[in-house]
């Protein structure tokens, strides 16, 4: 999942366009994108909304477990059965929330944990062991919770963003990277996506269709990266044949870690 | 508390000027600003020193619990009664130190925990649950303890500075940001204060009167920030009225987190 | 140990040159620098390899405890007795691995723990309490394990690199900094070494002789730093004599932390 594109459940016009963007997954949002007064109406519209997405796997983001809508949201997703790929639980702060979500959906349903609050980040290691199949880091909500401010560089979120990536690796689940709210600045999105990939993130939340192709590109290996990975493996194999494991490649010393990264790059490219 | 201005207890001349600076709080320091040979004399002078500050709430910073002066320092602060707003405990490394301080002072006294050592940062989550009403992060002492070096960018302290801000949020107490020792460089102070505010800090330790107005400005919402916050709320309310929760504002997608930040900005502006 | 220079145990030509580089320690590597097919041969050559290094203390890096070679590697190092200064354990992920290594070698043998995986970083605090005499942070392997990418700035590794430095301080052991694979770029190595020293690292792993003098220089106090440290102590002593503890020095406010850093600088310079 390199790209996951959001559309609010109170915006059937946007949901109907989700297929066009070419995202690896679509998220129909019952949480922040739906106003309080429209929560029940949006939930009731789910079957129709989900049916309007034909070619993209659909996930539904439900309101947080601390809200009055959580149970009804989960029930509505469960009733959709195999029409949805799974659920995204926002603002996860207790292991039981994920167990509850996983328990209500069928076997094989995806459960993505939203780590986007002080309590979520502080317990992320335990949370991700509790039945998540993936997680996302929500920098906007996390920094808002701390009373801070978001910047383009994102230094204020680096600690949490790094810690979530590590916790995801420990739990063996994919980490999905923070949104970029300034959806008109493609360069900012690309830089942020690249930084996310450097940290170990596997894909990115998108809030606008224009962000999807950038995420798909950044979270795939480029031709250049593939060529480099193949070159590294070839140099290493040639060295191994001569009994040498640490070889030089384009001015860098190549050994174990570089080999593992090169293999990972080629595997992800399929 | 946007600004807390230090003056050493062995410098009655500087203490007497504390009122002029316009800081939100004044700290009369018995710790690093007082030489070993002058500790008892400085402590004995506290009543007079505190009395010389008329318009600014006064806190007293006491020597660390591992020193021979800690108990006498706390007793001296306790005797000052309501003449002081509370105590700042330097180099906190065990929960009992804060409980001890809180227990000796009256109800309602402020206890600020100094997190400024390897052991302090490593236990900050537990320490701040032990009776602190606020905390500060001391980057100079922390990096000295690790045998590192301070830089203008502060990358070396980012992990600890971020972790302390998160722990403060979890404990529900205000986090106060590191000092800037180069007191002649207003620009460096302003950048450092802004970075602290981005991370969620609520105010800053000041070691020179010239730093106080900068801290007061950076840790208040600017007119521009207030106008933006009001604009965001207006756009959101207008969207809500039309049944839409995620709206566009100046090229950015505005939903839950942005609304929470805008409300926080307006609240802090009073 | 400001500089530790690697040579693969399957490269007797490089091992024989280790003395020339002027490193504080040499590491004969049985791990990533030796291909799988050559592991046993390289291990068998250890006595001869170690004997070829005359003037530099020698450490042997053994394969990780999860590999089939770990026990035989440790036995081979133990048999070398006082001909080696100790062992470097790669990819440490459980306290028993270090206890096992320390137990097999004689009293006084150095055991350096390699922290270079998700599990290693996540448990670094406990690992370093289990008998390590020092540790190194391996950014290449750590980021490869997370599926990320290494960059020149190293932002992707800052969280782990900072956390390892803190854990080392807590355990009272020296932290040794990450390698720089681009061995032709002296400037990159110097910047990376300086950043490591800022974080509290005491020395650096080197993969090429050209990196050694740079590491030795960066991890020693420069004449300028020594002069500054002496100036700070002099200003502070002069202030103390006048009953003042926080004094000005070259436009900065100098008190406890600056004094402690200055003393550390002078001590390290011997």
Descriptive account of the structure:
The structure is a homotrimer of 270-residue chains. The first copy, chain A, is α/β, with parallel strands linked by helices and 270 residues long. Chain A folds into two domains: 3-218, TIM Barrel; 223-268, no CATH class. Helix content of chain A is 46%, strand content 16%. Chain A has 13 helices and ten strands. Chain A has helices spanning 12-16, 39-44, 46-51, 70-79, 95-104, 118-122, 124-128, 139-146, 158-171, 186-199, 211-218, 223-241, 256-268, and strands spanning 3-8, 25-29, 58-62, 86-89, 110-115, 134-137, 174-177, 203-206, 247-249, 252-254. In chain A, the strands form two sheets. Chain A has an eight-stranded parallel barrel with strand order 1-2-3-4-5-6-7-8, surrounded by five helices. In chain A, α10 (186-199) runs parallel beside α11 (211-218) and α12 packs across α13 (256-268). Chain A starts with a strand and ends with a helix. The model of chain A has no long low-confidence stretch (mean pLDDT 94). The interface between A and B is large, with 41 and 33 residues.
